[in-house]
Amino acid sequence: MKRIAILGSTGSIGIQALEVVRSHPEQLEVICLTANSNAELLMEQAKTFNPDCVVIADEEKYTIVRDALAQYPIKVYAGSDALAQVVEQSNIDMVLAAIVGYAGLPSTFNALKSGKAVALANKETLVVAGDLIIKTARENNAPIIPVDSEHSAIFQCLVGEYGPVEKIYLTASGGPFLNHTQNQLRLVTKDDALKHPSWVMGEKITIDCASMMNKGFEVIEAKWLFDLKPEQIEVLVHPQSIVHSMVQLKDGSIKAQLGRTDMKLPIRYAFSFPERWESGDKRLSFDDMRLLEFRQPDTEKFPCLALAYEAMNKGGNVPCILNAANEIAVEAFLNNRLVFTMLPKVLAATMEKHHFIANPTFDDYLNTNKEARRIATEIIRAMA
Ligand code: NAD
Ligand code: MG
Known about the structure:
The chain is an alpha/beta fold. It has helices at 12-23, 39-49, 62-68, 80-86, 105-113, 124-139, 149-158, 182-186, 190-193, 203-211, 213-226, 264-272, 303-314, 318-334, 343-353, 362-383; strands spanning 2-7, 28-35, 53-56, 75-78, 94-97, 117-120, 144-146, 165-172, 233-237, 243-249, 254-258. Helices cover 46% and strands 15% of the residues. The chain is globular, with a radius of gyration of 20 Å. The site of nicotinamide-adenine-dinucleotide has 27 residues, from α1 and α10.
């Protein structure tokens, strides 16, 4: 039995992770579930999966959850401190980090600090503080198993390999605006951006896919996970989303992992590694595969990807600034306060304005996140 905590159980990844748990009752036991503010779903999940404890980050919802679960042997905690601390419990073997954004950093960091294996969906954690996260994982012998489909693909390709990687190819669907002209891009709405051609995900990552910021974040995520130099990471637009990513080895051989667009596969693999567990999920059909296209991304049309490379090359607190500005800009776009094509402009201007810290501490990241959010908010206000 692997005893797991699912952080962000009410989100897209969290819900799919619970489907995986449901299909592997002999192998997985849920110890802890957490949510930001969706008390209703958290309570329903708790009644079904009977965890040892639940955490609701929004403290105003505490009494609702506590009262609803009063008849059950389930401890109820509230607030962000409880969320960060709960992962340290000794009855947890693995933590699925599936909170979205910077908010996932403290809990992921603490899980690794207490030596827990982490199944990592929350890529923003590595974007913001990749150096600290990887160092903490190494020092505490805490494995990080990627859940992000591209990184899971690379991880799977590397099983059984000893030599160094020559380069990796991160595939990108290109999102809903792949074939839009600049003029069309200026007019896109929130509803257009929320229609992803191949994946169903939470709102924030769906917007990141439309702007290709997501792929930029994944480049930074790959750098940290696989210890790569920027020039070893190449993004390829692959609209069919069948090849989830590829690894090129020193003899020129290229390995790829293929699959349907179903996050349950990488989630299950993160839970089962180094084993594989059976799944009754639909299989990939070669009829879907008559055409597999690969082409270079257009960084002029999608400047967010270039900004990610710039942030990665500068290092220090710059990726943290980029992430914070992006969280603010995406929120503004979702609330109809920012047009789509202004999104990268907000990010670039925030990166420009914020001061540089070459070797940030945990507190430096905390302060950078706060200050960059303030700067981005101001820039958006000035644009309006
Ligand atoms: P989502 O918005 O559907 O769910 C987010 C979860 O985090 C929810 O349970 C929410 O309650 C919780 N949460 C949000 N803010 C919080 C806060 N301040 N404090 C505590 N909890 C909070 O997001 P998602 O699509 O499931 O994505 C989760 C993470 O996984 C993201 O980092 C995303 O980039 C990554 N990811 C998602 C997918 C996907 O297919 N959805 C694929 C690859 C990677
Ligand atoms: Mg991905």
